Amino acid sequence: TIYFKEWDDPRVIDKHTGHAIPNPTQKDMKEKAATGAMHFKIHSGRTSYGLPRIIGNLFSIWGSRASDVINFQTFKNNNIPSMVVTVSNGMLTQDTIDRMEEYVNAHIKRSDNYSKFLILEAETQDEEAQNAGTMKIDIKPMTSQQHTDQLFQIYDNNNSEKIRRSFRLPQIFVGKTENINRAATESSRRLAEEQVFGPEREEMDRQINKLLTHFGIKYHTIKSNSPNVTDDAALTKIISGAEKS
């Protein structure tokens, strides 16, 4: 583990232990001194490392992770079989049960055996039954009871929306393009630039300009470039209207 120290901390910090060196020697300065780093963080009095933006939706992240696990386990270990074999007024012979197990293991688990069929045999429970013809074997499909898609879809989508709103990002910036036209896209770009990315760049510029003073730079400042989000069509109409007037 390598430790850094907070920028502008006058102490000499050991980069291997994270502790201050009381009386550092020239050798300590060369071999052990930690590098100062500026940490752009969301301040919190509870920790010196700051808090992530998604801290308010931490349970949503855990919930989505748990729902993925449940979906995977449901897909891998489906508790609802694809069919049920029922026997009325009788019982399957042991040979038939063994044959069914062998058939399922050898054929049903493979995808190239749709045309195969299985012969079942059964015997009456009472060998002296007067009406043995009432015995019946039914195979009932259970596919309608199986899950046809993943679980918790609405819950997971809601969690995704909560996390996206933590970063104040429009839908188009996270790859969601459903029901979004060009006009909505341009509005989203301008809104994100004005309320999200622009203020973030200004805050970073302010921190870096404060850093320049430590190097004796007084007459220069840093200003980050920003994208052009001007509505050219609207600007053209304004200029055309001004020329006509």
From TrEMBL:
This is Phage portal protein. It comes from marine sediment metagenome.
